[in-house]
Amino acid sequence: MDQQKxxxxxxxxxxxxxxxxxxxTDVTMSITPGAVHGLIGPNGAGKTTMVNVLTGFQAPxxxxxxxxxxxxxxxxxxxxxxxxxxxxxxxxxxxxxLDVLDNLAVTGVGLGHSRHASEVEAxxxxxxxxxxxxxxxxxxxxxxxxxxxxxxxxxxxxxxxxLLLDEPAAGMSEAEAEDLSQVIARVAAELGCGVLLIExxxxxxxxxxxxxxxxxxxxxxxxxxxxxxxxxxxxxxxYLGADQGEM
Length: 247
Ligand SMILES: Nc1ncnc2c1ncn2[C@@H]1O[C@H](COP(=O)(O)OP(=O)(O)OP(=O)(O)O)[C@@H](O)[C@H]1O
Hints:
By secondary structure, the chain is α/β, with parallel strands linked by helices. Helix content is 37%, strand content 24%. InterPro entries: AAA+_ATPase (IPR003593), ABC_AA/LPS_Transport (IPR051120), ABC_transporter-like_ATP-bd (IPR003439), P-loop_NTPase (IPR027417).
C-alpha cells in the first residue's frame, strides 16, 4: 500500500476501551489533505488516544480507521508511517546523543532509504522549515522551541500525507506559538498535508484550523469552523464544567 495522496484519514465509529473504561466512544472524524484540523477538549477528553488510534499506536476496540478506502485499524505505527501517516509526541523524543541532522536522517533510514539519501532529505526539510542552522547542533540541550521544530521536521521527512501534532505549542510563549502556527499553515498549504493539531492553546487552534473537533469525555460534542466553536454552548459548558478556564 503506497501513500494515499488525495485520500482522507478517517475514524469511523471508533471506540477505544481500556478494561471497562472507554477513552473514546463512537468517534467519527476525518482529516483531509491540504487542510488543518483542530482537536480540542478538556484534560482527559481522549485527544492523545485519538492521535494514537489514528497513527497505529493504539488499535480501536470497535470501529474503523480508514486511509482512503482501506481499513488500517490493525496496522502498526511503522507501517502507517511508511504509508504517509506521521506524528509528533508531547515530549519531543529526540535522540539526545545525535545531532539534529542525524535525528532526521535516522527516520529516513527507518523508512528504507540509504544513509546518504536520508541526510540529503534531512537537509532539505530543515531548509524548508528555516532551521538549517540547527543541523550540526546536538539534540541534547536544544532550546525547547527548537526541539519542537526539529520534532516536526523529523515527522516531515519524505513528505507524509498526514501530520498529527500532539501539543506542539506546549510551553511556548505567544510569539513562539504564532511562529509555530505559520509553520503549521505552510505544512497544509505548501505541502498539501492533512494536519491534525491537538492543543490546549485553543486560540492557536482556532486561528489556524479550517475545521475543529471538540472532544469531551471521549465523545465528539461539536465540530465546525471557528465561529461554530466560539458560539457553541456545549463547548463552553464542557470547558467551564471541567474548570479549564476561559477559551
Ligand atoms: N493506556 C491507558 N490505560 C488506561 N487508561 C488510559 C490509557 N490511556 C489513556 N487512558 C485514559 O483515557 C482518558 C483519555 O486520555 P487521553 O490522554 O487520551 O486524554 P487527553 O485529552 O489527551 O488528555 P490531556 O489533555 O490531559 O493530555 C484518560 O482518562 C486517561 O487516563
